[in-house]
Amino acid sequence: MEKHKFRPECIWNIDETGCFTVQTRRPQLAKKGEKRVGSIVSHEKGSTVTLCGAVNAIGNSIPPFLIFPRVNVQEHWTLAAPAGTLCNAHPKASGWMTSENFMNFLKHFYEHTKPSKDRPVLMILDNHASHCSEGAIRFCRENYITLLSFPRNATPGQISLWTISAIL
């Protein structure tokens, strides 16, 4: 870590989360014995869209990277999204992160963070298999992105301690 001397704005935390396209039913509260409880519930099953986000140590973020479980990307998917949001379609992975999608995310990340020899970045992420492809590691080395990954099943407290000790 002393070799790179990462500035706070160059330390990025990356994570993915699944977002459902259809809201789930919320519990309804009613008086005991009440026969009618109003509720509108969609019976549509929906699907999961993966959002991959990146936030740096001073709180800045890049536009989201979305993965839809579809064959093709539709332009209207990003109409209400933040400027610069990138969408990927991946029918076989049910919208989850894959090595191919992660490479696309890395290119998206590079465009928005502009790492260089004089300003390298540290990317902190989980230890998902999609992050460990040969192509991703090569891309990061060639573009001044240093990867730091956490062990699987690490608790938030452990992650905080590892991050602090790794950066100090």
UniProtKB/TrEMBL annotation:
<feature type="domain" description="DDE-1">
    <location>
        <begin position="49"/>
        <end position="155"/>
    </location>
</feature>
<dbReference type="InterPro" id="IPR004875">
    <property type="entry name" value="DDE_SF_endonuclease_dom"/>
</dbReference>
<dbReference type="Pfam" id="PF03184">
    <property type="entry name" value="DDE_1"/>
</dbReference>
<dbReference type="GO" id="GO:0005634">
    <property type="term" value="C:nucleus"/>
</dbReference>
<dbReference type="GO" id="GO:0003677">
    <property type="term" value="F:DNA binding"/>
</dbReference>
<dbReference type="InterPro" id="IPR050863">
    <property type="entry name" value="CenT-Element_Derived"/>
</dbReference>
<protein>
    <recommendedName>
        <fullName>DDE-1 domain-containing protein</fullName>
    </recommendedName>
</protein>
<dbReference type="InterPro" id="IPR036397">
    <property type="entry name" value="RNaseH_sf"/>
</dbReference>
